[in-house]
Amino acid sequence: MITAHCSLDLLGSVAALCVCDLSPAQCDVNCCCDPDCSSMDFSVFSACSVPVVTGDSQFCSQKAVIYSLNFTANPPQRVFKLVDQINPSVFCIHITNYKPALSFINPEVPDENNFDTLMKTSDGFTLNAESYISFTTKLDIPTAAKYEYGVPLQTSDSFLRFPLSLTSSLCTDDNPAAFLVNQAVKCTRKINLEQCEEIEALSMAFYSSPEILRVPDSRTKVPITVQSIIIQSLNKTLTRREDTDVLQPTLINAGHFSLCMNVVLEVKYSLTYTDAGEVTKADLSFLLGTVSSVVVPLQQKFEIHFLQENTKPVPLSGNPGYVVGLPLAAGFQPHKTGALPCQLVAQKVKSLLWGQGFPDYVAPFGNSQAQDMLDWVPIHFITQSFNRKHFVLQDSCQLPGALVIEVKWTKYGSLLNPQAKIVNVTANLISSSFPEANSGNERTILISTAVTFVDVSAPAEAGFRAPPAINARLPFNFFFPFV
Questions:
Q1: Which of 20, 140, 220, 429 is the most exposed place for a label (fewest CB within 10 A)?
Q2: Is there a contact between 397 and 415 (Cβ–Cβ < 8 Å)?
């Protein structure tokens, strides 16, 4: 019964198709399917511009209409023939139960004729300027054991409210937040500044106090945690509060002006969910500000985003088109082979061996002062290259393989209490030749560092006093005549 019904409907739709009928209430030349053409019009036709009209080509079996002209008749007549065509494709539609899915649905634009009908099918809204009426609109409570896309998020008393602007720019608080529907909206509130402390929509508690049900009709509740509070002053400067205590709007009369502090300007929900359709975490961020009579009416911004558990979301700048004010998405192409040039590898290995901020001088003593630079010992840097056998130099790569630091020290001072003193430091960077690796091959390079301390103290020599010597001047002939 269903197949026959679809076939009859398809037959009627194909017979009514006429892609060459471009002029309303007029006969188009050589358009054999134009219902405005008569037998007199067919007499001047040369051929049918569209001889075959078919329906949707996605069906496995479809009706086709073949048009032709019988010029032997007087006057010439149009020949209309219905045939069945078989789709040779393996992937085709045998039968469809929901025909609107085969085409895009044109959105119905509200006008004065259909406005009342659209009002009855909508969820309803309020035009109350204060927008603090209790949530009286009751939606159908889902009975599923998990949240599905578009299902309103339930709280302990009703639904999670997400303010929205409907027919005008004014905020309405009767709109429920839908599961997996990311939104970012701005709306306006006309408020009486003298009553700012009494308006719930201006208070943090209005957005942070509800508890979201983990799944529909569940007894497990997920509290909303305030993650950050940013205060915006009248001159637009921003200050982040260290604590996340809930603040209440406070009215301050300053002479002829009235100020209301701690007013909610922006609200950002971040809800974490699992692939089983459960809400596991709810975070909330606020932007509070000070409102004066100059900035009334007040504009508020609301955002809600859903993040899947154990995933790292990629921020988008539009879907699909770019949104004004969002950053441009950019990226880089990684190396196709993963190979690195020799000079870059040598520089990386050298930086690993030297470390960060390799010194130029070493203090001779442990208590040497920085201002006594002339007493400090300079480090001597030496670079050596070691060429392995059977390696061709033009096809090899010189890579540092070892850093050898030699520290020469001596014993300084008295033999009874000698002190260690550094007299020389040498840093020797040893490089080796490695053959160039072919593309796709990997090689492991071993690098090492070594520090040696060499005692260059000379053996101590015993010290004695010099023997006595006579330093007297005697006359030349003092021993005469004996000598």
A1: 140
A2: no
- The tokens for 50 are 């569209």
Integer Cα distance of 27 and 60 in angstroms: 34
**Which DSSP letter does residue 178 get?**
B
β-strand 61-70 against 52-54: which pairing, if any? antiparallel
Q: Which residues contact 109 (CB under 8 A, 6 or more apart)?
A: none
The domains of the chain are located at: 2-102, 126-308, 342-437+444-455
Judge contact between 183 and 248, C-beta under 8 A: no
Give the phi and the psi of residue 15 in degrees, each rounded to 5: -65, -25
Is the Cα dihedral 64, 67, 73, 74 positive or negative?
positive
Burial pattern 45-58, b for ≥16 Cβ within 10 A else e, equals beebbbeebebeee
* 79 three-class SS: strand
pTM of the entire predicted model: 0.42
Q: What is the CA radius of gyration of the chain?
A: 46
CA 360-362-367 angle, 5° bins: 145
Query: Phi, psi (5° rounding) for residue 184?
Result: -150, 110
Q: pLDDT tens string for the chain (483 positions)?
A: 333 333 334 445 677 788 888 888 889 888 988 889 988 888 888 889 888 888 777 888 888 888 898 888 888 888 888 888 888 888 888 877 777 766 666 667 778 888 888 777 765 554 443 443 344 444 444 455 888 888 999 998 888 989 888 778 888 888 889 998 988 889 988 888 888 888 888 999 999 888 999 998 888 899 999 999 999 888 888 888 888 888 888 888 877 778 888 999 999 999 999 988 899 999 999 999 988 876 678 889 999 999 888 877 677 777 767 777 777 777 766 655 556 778 888 888 888 898 888 899 999 988 888 888 888 999 999 988 876 554 445 567 888 989 999 999 998 887 777 888 999 999 999 988 877 666 556 778 888 999 999 999 887 666 666 777 777 777 777 777 776
